[in-house]
Structure prediction request, 1020 residues.
Amino acid sequence: MKNKHHDFLTKQPLSQQVTDFLLIRIDRGDYTAHDKLPSVRTLAQQLGVHRLTVFKSYQQLVHNGKIYAKDRSGYYVMPCIQEELKDSNLLHNLASVSDKSYDGTRSIQQLLSPPILAGINFKPPVVSSPLRTNMLSELQAHHVDYQFSKALIDPALLPNAYMSEYVKKVFDLYPKLLGTYSTVQGDEELRVTLAEYFKKRHQFFLLPEDILITSGAQQAIDLIARLMIKPGDTIIMERPTYSGAIDIFRQQGAHIISIPMLPDGYDMDELESIIRNYKPRMMYVTPTFHNPTGYVLPASKRKRLVELAEEYHFLITEDDTTYDMYFEEEPPLPIYGYDTEGVVMYIRSFSKYIAPGLRIAAVLCSPWLMKDLLTLKSLADGGSPLLGQKIFMHYFTSSRMQTHMEKLRIALSLRKEAMERCLAKTNWEWTPPKGGLDLWVQLPEGVSSVELLRRSLALSVSFVPGPFCEPDAVHHSSSIRLSYCYTSERQIEEGMQRLIDAYDSLIHTI
Amino acid sequence: MKNKHHDFLTKQPLSQQVTDFLLIRIDRGDYTAHDKLPSVRTLAQQLGVHRLTVFKSYQQLVHNGKIYAKDRSGYYVMPCIQEELKDSNLLHNLASVSDKSYDGTRSIQQLLSPPILAGINFKPPVVSSPLRTNMLSELQAHHVDYQFSKALIDPALLPNAYMSEYVKKVFDLYPKLLGTYSTVQGDEELRVTLAEYFKKRHQFFLLPEDILITSGAQQAIDLIARLMIKPGDTIIMERPTYSGAIDIFRQQGAHIISIPMLPDGYDMDELESIIRNYKPRMMYVTPTFHNPTGYVLPASKRKRLVELAEEYHFLITEDDTTYDMYFEEEPPLPIYGYDTEGVVMYIRSFSKYIAPGLRIAAVLCSPWLMKDLLTLKSLADGGSPLLGQKIFMHYFTSSRMQTHMEKLRIALSLRKEAMERCLAKTNWEWTPPKGGLDLWVQLPEGVSSVELLRRSLALSVSFVPGPFCEPDAVHHSSSIRLSYCYTSERQIEEGMQRLIDAYDSLIHTI
Prediction:
């Protein structure tokens, strides 16, 4: 596994070559002010040189004032070197990428970064199958001042202080809580509580053993995909859809077919024709305040969807993470409620609106699927941590919970309206959703959402470009997802103005 | 997906047939006193009848005093009906299974339960691949008074009260803790802490980005298996080995080859010959207080193993969950410490000895593997819950931690000695380990460990039979794993006496 061929490095002493290699990357902006450089170990491995060589090179750069060392955590880029870069570093360094070159398999890094220096032979990864990077998660990791790419609730809207006090009571109730594992299926007391909740709320008659607790909806989707999908299996997804689910099903080797999600749901005849042609194993849907559009699948189509699943023998995975985020009236019954044959696997996420750090979701499904799902869950992590389940349960059943949810709905609808007021100044189009966390906005035809992202990141504004939400091909490249839940109304106004500025600058260059 | 053919049910009114079906199962002991019966929904689905039919049948059984309803959580078996069963239900109901019929793919339920009533056509699961039930987890779910099957620390030995107090301080420090997601890789502050710990303890020079936090070692193994193993890939495992890892690698479709783990490690020439013949993609090892034998791979063989991995281009997954459980001197440096080429993926579990409920483990690996591992982790759950990571970190760096570990080592060695005193009364054989949580005991040749389990479960004693730990074929069927960490010294004495009684009764029937 050694790799000592670095042709471009053969003229000078090795440590000088490494120094030059680092200087090029810093000057080019791969590493900007206060960025951490690779560890000595890492870089030595990447370049196939001795660690002492890298160490010597870092010492030289420290001596020259190009980088600085911070106690034990590594080496960082000195800010002064960055002042030479006039433009925002991200803007400056983004490679020229057009929507046309987007093929659905490139990572955000590939989209946004310059190509790697020719001549450097990195060790090839030896993974079992080509991995598709979780693009959304990479995008969200970019720090920006105006964060419209995260469909997460602003921590300022959460009952943090109250919850912190609450936790202490939970520990008084369960003094051995941290010494105990949860069962694989999840804490029984929590599952009893949720069974009662589902009965009261939706008239779902469940036993605690019909419920699996997972570490967030993400894990639920992943477990279901691992359970049901083998490479080459066909899955139908809405278009657009949740980026994280696309990543999971692709990783599992699914063959993805899509059906457009319209303001009143899909064309059911078109859907049936797709089903007949492709014989899917599963359909993945977010029918209530659909991610990313916010649309709602009407009750009649929910019922019909279940009939289709029964008739054509496929399963429905209903991902219901935003059910409780309605602004006006309650949404229709979940698709799961129409199911009498056990064709629906229902994912309901709860902690997102209370304490996202807890990562609590529930899966409801028929017993014969539950049995195998439990096996996978036991292999995957042996059961979610008990602590979070107990904390969640006690808050979930408190009267305070209801009040919190009502306040949260009002706060979110105000933010949505603030964002819509800004959008009203543009010629962009959107269908106002009646709940959820996002607006799905169509830019005028021909405008590249990826190019707009590049420009808006430079102005410290982030959003999700349409292609991230495309399950199978390049559609909606002129659409963008704007989440209004993570930023204050004032931030929304400021950030939207910047986004509009970025758009104007883009239009003027076209 | 409907299934209405129940030939044996065609003579009587449907609800009476369902009632009979239930009575047979209760009388046979499938359901014993206070056992919960299937939900109306579940049973209706299984039998392909209307829910109201099942409901009527349950009402009839309640009326006849055979079962009782408990508020909203379902129907339960009335104790009186069980008094007709003289023997312990588990003993009574265990099917006759010999080791010979054990083929490595049957679940504990299949091993221990009577065959399902002929004539009932359950719906077939529609999973993507045949799932192997996590046998160990099923066995451990059996409630017994003397629990020697769990390699978990007795909660009574954990600093629960102190931790509970500690948690409150953690919340004072991070008031928005529950409103925040961890990064995918794990809390940065915790990774900085661990990097410093590894440097101080083992002279591993790491950056925080070389460390991934997972929800327990189980998740770490699962992620690594998903990353590295595609169906048909060869993996070498020790024989015997950790049952949970066998399940994961089998589920991933690995072709497993084994090498015997001896008190002084493997025969390195035999290993090299296996490697040459089978060209493995990975070797999975628990070299320090090996699970289940407690043996330690000597330093010289650790070094040689890394050389072999480099020479023959395979990766080593080093699962180091019991490193800190030494009774005398510290064990040799982890294999990871000998690796300069990035061939070792190192899993270190921490929370097990402090607060198992937190589920904290760390993976160390080379940057090019870390990148893909992070992608998988982001797909799998988006990052482990932050709360547990912060609680763990603060305790881990406290002075109290060191004292706790020292006390724990003493307590465990006393329990080990208590168990060994009991074993000394038998003609069973074992090599006293110098650390870990288990004894690996050879019964006299020809004695079936599965048959012994069946008899000992009837006496409320549980342990792990040898075949559970067999990665590839039937070996060690006369060996058993006895964990001494979960029960008090007194319980060990009582439970071991019962185990010996079960053994005596088995010997007398042979």
